Amino acid sequence: MSGGRAGGDGVAEASALLAELVTIPSPSGSEGKIIARIEELCDGWGLSSRRVATETGRDNLLVGGSEPALLFAAHVDTIDPPWPIGMRNEDGVVHGLGALDDKGGVVACLLAARRLRQAGADLDALGVAFAFPVDEERDGAGSRALALAVRPRYAVALEATGLATGIAEIGDVEATVHVHGRSAHGAFGELGDNAIDRAVAFVNALPELGLGDHGHPLLGGSSVEVGGIAAGAGHNAIPDRCSVKIAIKVVPGQGSGAVVDSLDRLAAAHGARVELVEVTDPFETPVDSPLVVALDAAAGEVTGERRPPIGVPAWTDAHNFVAFGGAEAVVFGPGDFATAHTPEEHIDVRRVVECAEVFVRVANHGWRS
Q1: 156 and 69 in contact (C-beta within 8 Å)?
Q2: d(CA 160, CA 163)
Q3: Domain span including residue 115
Q4: Given a cut of 50, is residue 6 above it in pLDDT?
Q5: Which of 109, 174, 294, 352 gets the most CB atoms within 10 Å of its CB?
Q6: Do the domain assignments include residue 369?
């Protein structure tokens, strides 16, 4: 199928389905209605589904094979935005919260599953399933539960990559560094030890972590950002504590554990203590992985363009399929991530239809070993 035909077939239907899902509010923690609607759609299309519980008490939905070797996963939750939620459909471009992140991906998975069913394919025999996890925008409980329950050999996490295959994903170390000093009256500063001064010295010493020695061809270099500094109770008092929020980008081959050890040593040298907020390891899937090869080939056939692999500079559900399920995982999906988490969020549904066709072709390879 050429790129033009993939973009022309089924766009109106896909637009209507996406518009409907966008109008169902589903911020993290409140995904029940959209899970129920997807379950209802699958039942009407003759697709078998089951719920997979998370530790939060909310349910994911799993469609297809009970023990899939290949899992496509599109999260149903959205951020909880500070702006008004709306939806509009303009000639196949759907605007609204979640249209891009990630309900366009949800629709691509639904269309692919239905098309396979209509063609007489048995998802279980193919070794393929489609999952709709909750909680991606918050804690990742949905994909974590799926990874542990299903343990697919291969996994595709749906995010807006422009139908390029994301084979490497960034890791991170988020921490609050607590710097201690000694309080004193502001008029007698020489009697105190200003924690803010100590914190500034710590921040200025961050290059000693040696992050610049680590780089990746798809993700760039490792780096650290200071996200906030809090200290002091007012005028005329020398603060005895100061907290610095930092985020470190970790690239494949670097190791988050080694970064944490370096950070602990640097903090101790400045009389500070590290409070870890989140630590995730980066991952990279080989370009010769059967999943990468199949996706790249199918995307090239459908779009008429062979896109090079990309790096993913943010956490996705793919991390949990690697860390908790031992899968070879990639990030792949329709749309341009530039408008995600903004009031301008939108997606061209022609790309959603193309993505569905890519998945049909990949699924038909057969993944049951």
Answers
A1: no
A2: 7
A3: 3-169+283-363
A4: no
A5: 352
A6: no
Give the pLDDT confidence of 196-218 residue by residue, as tens digits: 899 999 999 999 999 999 999 99
Is residue 151 located within the same domain as residue 205? no
Structural domain count, the chain: 2
In degrees rounded to 5, what are phi and psi of residue 18? Answer: -65, -40
Length of the chain: 369
Check whether 47 has a pLDDT greater than 50.
yes
Each residue of 260-316: pLDDT tens digit? 999 999 999 999 999 999 999 999 999 999 999 999 999 999 999 999 999 999 999
Contact 60, 129 (CB under 8 A): no
Residue 249: exposure state from Cβ atoms within 10 A (0-12, 13-18, ≥19): buried
Query: In terms of domains, do 265 and 340 share one?
Result: no
347 and 206 part of one domain: no
Q: What DSSP letter does each residue of 16-44 carry, written as one string? A: HHHHHHHTS--BTT--HHHHHHHHHHHHH
CATH number at residue 247: 3.30.70.360
Do 183 and 305 lie in a common domain? no
Rounded alpha-carbon distances, angstroms, from residue 311 to 12, 217, 268, 284: 32, 8, 34, 9
Same domain membership, residue 52 and residue 189: no
Q: pTM for this one?
A: 0.91
**In this predicted model, what pLDDT tens digit does every residue of 71-110 receive, in sequence order?**
999 999 999 988 777 899 888 899 999 999 999 999 999 9
List helix spans (H) across the chain: 3-8, 11-22, 32-44, 104-118, 123-126, 141-150, 195-204, 256-269, 290-303, 318-323, 349-363
Q: What is the DSSP string of 178-239?
A: EEE-B-EEGGGGGGSB-HHHHHHHHHHTGGGG-GGG-EETTTEE-EEEEEEEEE--STTEE-
Same domain? 21 vs 159: yes
Q: How far is CA 321 from CA 153, 328, 339, in A?
A: 9, 8, 26
Residue 368 lies in a domain: no
Residue 358 backbone zone (phi > 0: left; psi -120 to 50: alpha; other: beta): alpha
